Amino acid sequence: MPDVSGRSASVRDVTDEVLLSARGLTKTFGDFTAVDGIDVEVRRGEAFGFLGPNGAGKSSTMRMVGCVSPVTGGELRILGMDPAHDGPAIRARLGVCPQKDILDEELSVEENLWVYGRFFGLSRAEVRRRADELLDFAQLTDRRHDRVEPLSGGMKRRLTIARSLMNDPEVLLLDEPTTGLDPQARHVLWDRLFRLKRDGVTLIVTTHYMDEAEQLCDRLVVMDHGRIVAEGSPRALIEAYSTREVVELRFAVDEQEQHLPAVDGVGERVEVLPDRLLVYTADGDGALAELGRRGVHPLSSLVRRSTLEDVFLHLTGRTLVD
């Protein structure tokens, strides 16, 4: 794949250069506080994530970072500049993939790229060269002359990302990049994003999919009600706030709580969800064997590794999809 970033290999690893710095960043809408005094740093070459449920403040944060929503309070610096005074200069160096595709559906695939590229003052020759590279990157070369409207959701999402790269951005903002896509389309998109990171583009991602955050992010923050409740790499967060394995126990409807006395003490802790019990333990198979000796016989059981959703459940008492 061609290097769509246009930058040298020297920036392809994470560096100490801070591209995004927020201190006490706040966003309010009347009496409602969407972002409540968060501190964040993103370094060049990172894939950084904001993980949390809908309404956690992720998109409000991204709109401030994208210089389309003014900061209510605190300090925000992007590429060393202040969005309040340097918005146009910052936006020229950002790529933005919004939560919803805003493509020109009456135009062809390649025409969407051409029109967007001209917004940045690129020459016709440069626009066509960049478009050819990005169509190949997005696996859309054979659809270049097709109108956008009938394309699949996955194709439209890849085109949206390709369009956001026309200005050769240093930082790419991705707001819920795979929402609404089927599993196959999500994995294809993840592969495209891995390639971007390899080519030196710094990624800032919001998502409420824990597997997406684990796949894409070097570091992330977990947000809830506008605040950051934890920060670190996916592995470090799981090690800090969960156990190596989780046993899921499913019983008949509304029978979970009557089994709690027998389950108590089998693992480090037990979480009660509407449809199952979660037993957190270092040894899932050993926990299942102990439950059998105690006479606990669920309708079904599953031993799995801990995920970021378990971290979020531990920190907030609710799942990411609440």
Automatic annotation (TrEMBL):
UniProt cross-references to InterPro entries, sorted A to Z: AAA+_ATPase, ABC_transporter-like_ATP-bd, ABC_transporter-like_CS, ABC_transporter_ATP-binding, P-loop_NTPase
Q: Which domain of life is it from?
A: Bacteria
* Keyword set includes Protein transport: no
Q: How does it sit in the membrane?
A: Peripheral membrane protein
Q: Which UniProt keywords apply?
A: Antibiotic resistance, ATP-binding, Cell membrane, Membrane, Nucleotide-binding, Translocase, Transport
Q: Which Gene3D superfamilies match?
A: P-loop containing nucleotide triphosphate hydrolases
Family membership: Belongs to the ABC transporter superfamily.
**The name this protein goes by in its record:** ABC transporter ATP-binding protein
Which organism is the protein's source?
Answer: Phycicoccus avicenniae
